[in-house]
Amino acid sequence: MWYNYPKGNIYNYLFLDNIHMIIKKCARCGKLIPYGGRWCEVCKPIAEAEQEQRRQERQKERQRIADQKRKDDPVTRFYRSKEWITLSKAYLQSVRWRCERCGRVAEVVHHKHYIRSPGGWEKRLEWENLEGLCSSCHAAEHGRTPGDGKRRTPGRSKK
Question: 126 to each of 80, 91, 98, 120, 123, how far by Cα in Å?
Answer without folding.
Answer: 17, 11, 19, 10, 5
